[in-house]
Amino acid sequence: MNKPKITLELVDRLGKCGCHHGHKIGDCFDFDTQRGELCPMAAHVAFPYVDILRYGGTLPLSKAGDIRFCCPDADVINVFRLKVEQPDE
User: How many domains does the chain fold into?
Assistant: First the structure.
């Protein structure tokens, strides 16, 4: 079973402070090859979502129709969108 490619894109910030790791809206990360560039707190939150998607599970969609999660920093609250690309079989 080939695992899908997962991309995380920073799409919004709900908190009043800038990201302590320096992330900005529009930043994108390939979960497999760029995970080390992602804030560790955001990566920690992303992992269960990625794991669920990689093993055939489903997640609720946001009002925008995509999958989103927030970083746990209450002062920042970066919003990330998960994009899933199924591998060619």
Answer: 1
